[in-house]
Amino acid sequence: MTKRSGEKHQVILDAAVKTFARAGYHRTRVSDIAGEAGVADGTVYIYFNNKEDILISLFQNIMNRFVEELRSELVLCRDANEKLEKIIDYHLRTLGSKPEQARVTQIELRQIDQKINEGISKPLLTYFRLIEEVIEEGKKQALYRPDLDTRTARKVIFGAIDEVVTCWVMSSKPYSLAELKNPVFDLLIRGLQ
Amino acid sequence: MTKRSGEKHQVILDAAVKTFARAGYHRTRVSDIAGEAGVADGTVYIYFNNKEDILISLFQNIMNRFVEELRSELVLCRDANEKLEKIIDYHLRTLGSKPEQARVTQIELRQIDQKINEGISKPLLTYFRLIEEVIEEGKKQALYRPDLDTRTARKVIFGAIDEVVTCWVMSSKPYSLAELKNPVFDLLIRGLQ
Amino acid sequence: MTKRSGEKHQVILDAAVKTFARAGYHRTRVSDIAGEAGVADGTVYIYFNNKEDILISLFQNIMNRFVEELRSELVLCRDANEKLEKIIDYHLRTLGSKPEQARVTQIELRQIDQKINEGISKPLLTYFRLIEEVIEEGKKQALYRPDLDTRTARKVIFGAIDEVVTCWVMSSKPYSLAELKNPVFDLLIRGLQ
Amino acid sequence: MTKRSGEKHQVILDAAVKTFARAGYHRTRVSDIAGEAGVADGTVYIYFNNKEDILISLFQNIMNRFVEELRSELVLCRDANEKLEKIIDYHLRTLGSKPEQARVTQIELRQIDQKINEGISKPLLTYFRLIEEVIEEGKKQALYRPDLDTRTARKVIFGAIDEVVTCWVMSSKPYSLAELKNPVFDLLIRGLQ
DNA sequence: GATGAATGAGAGTTCATTCAT
DNA sequence: AATGAATGAACTCTCATTCAT
User: Fold this and answer.
1) D1-15 pLDDT, tens per residue?
2) Is A40's Cβ below 8 Å from some Cβ in B?
3) What is the domain extent for residue A148?
4) Taking CA A160 as the corner, what is the angle to CA A156 and CA A166, rounded to the nearest 5 degrees?
5) Domains in chain D, number
6) Separation in Å, CA of D56 to nearest CA in chain C
7) Each residue of C32-70: pLDDT tens digit?
8) Taking each helix axis from N to C terminus, what angle separates B7-23 and B99-106, rounded to the nearest 10 degrees?
9) Residue D156's domain is classified under what CATH number?
């Protein structure tokens, strides 16, 4: 009789994305999320520990799916160059097609206190590691210079993509995010070689 | 003969950097700043409209000095390549030597509501424009390829530096930020050519 | 089966009358009202928008009941003279039996900002109109002179009663307010004829 | 060299009437009064003990002049009837010609805490006594009935005039206050006889 | 599991008043 | 006498969280 467990969990998460994207994390009240989700305030606390937990769960949810899907796309690529291109393509395409998620990822997520960052940094680290794996692979494949500092390269790559997304989120979005793939790739790829 | 003018203003600003860096913007109470500054709570409101105003003033203060000093260093450079190197060097060196300011710039500043972002984006735009000028100059000097998209290049450059700084701020800082200048520069410069 | 609805609303209103009468509107803190009502501070804001709203609701509450009851008593009167006598009697009797309400009505209510007076003047206007109706009736019944200015007569009647009440409230109340009915009536009635 | 003492006292008082009438007692800050008077905030405290003292001084100032002038006009009257007419006339004429003072007298003055009311009630009592003297005189002159309760009659008379003024102050003043003298007098005089 | 009324700690802000100059 | 920068007590209102139903 009861609908499948976890349904409300997702309903609340979806409502949270909308309200966070609309009003920002700090301006959003838990009752706003509950209202948007069509549940009582107290119900939110059955599925989440507190307000911050919602934001973190949101991000973990998004990032896990993000990395998982990205990984499955990467297996089709032949070499590191193709993989790097795919990463940029996938990153821009995914966030570009979900402006609300993009806003939460780029803006709202950075509004929470440092101590709880662990919940955020863990899924993010998986993504970082994935990028670093590709760089290492490129070095093994002799595509990238052997003295390349993998860690720094990862920061540069991620930072570049991230900034491109943030600028797009903050703008009135008069252009498609995905179309920036080529220019960004061109700028980054030669630095690695 | 007392140098009253602006004295307290700066004292409060200095206290704010410390407290924001220590506890974060949202966790800092106005009375904490006042206490750190050695003034009464009400005094803060003689010099600033509200808490947010302090954070914004802080950033404008920092950024104006940042861009001004950077500009004066750039005149000594011969070509766009040297200028770009100088930008990266100056950016990393400056924030690397002021960890408290760096934390406020990289973390706390991103905690305020979007609507008031104008106070933040304006001084930032000046910096963006400066980077774009250098890129344009490099194109005129035939150092960078003519089909390079200046705007995207700027985002990639700024995003890369910014991410490098953020990672350093979030870390326990076991390395000097300035020493990343060469690897970052090497990664970016070839993408422009 | 619990008669929850509106229960706390009234409890808070009752507590507000007491505290306003005791300490005055401006000297009363919302937490005082909450304490007197036996609820948390925040609960007050579930039922009222703000402190001023409590005072206004209080008055509307009182005045609505006042006019309603007065109206029901007036139907028993034969002519305008009897009705006027009843008005004076009822006004003095009602406030005379509720010194706390009287103090709020005569003193505290006049402490709020003009702009929000609408909430106050509306129920008061109902009372004014009722008095004017009786005067008009008296003119139709040829009890009062036809050239009598109804509006001015109402002001004189209400002002007289109101002042009598105010003096009583401000005094140590060594006399019963109701016993002033006859002298006041005698003074007013002949002016109308 | 110093201008005559008390000059600033009056300047501040004049500024207070304006600001109180404009914004109301509680909404007026001491710095507003000082600004309007063209003096420093601290200067206000050389001439007055505190904010309330300003309001009270204001009223005493007004009332003393009021009663004094009224008294001097009354000596020209032949009997109690003429005197009562003069009182009503003078009261309405005076306040009707000074809307700002009227607003302070009718509205703002009633906003202060009871305990300090002595400063207000004393000069008011002088006015009350003056009215009662006229009533007593009328009784002695056999113009008014001997069983008339002087105290109550005074309350009725003052309350009536006061209400007429208050209604005018609260209105957009589309009529002259002075023109209400006759209707008010007609209404009151017969009640005394 | 679901509800939503109730809680109460918490913080930003105001402004009357003071006092060193 | 005059100034006005500085003070700091005071107070309203918000909202994340709880828990009896």
Assistant:
1) 344 456 899 999 999
2) no
3) 51-192
4) 140
5) 1
6) 16
7) 999 999 999 999 999 999 999 999 999 999 999 999 999
8) 70
9) 1.10.357.10
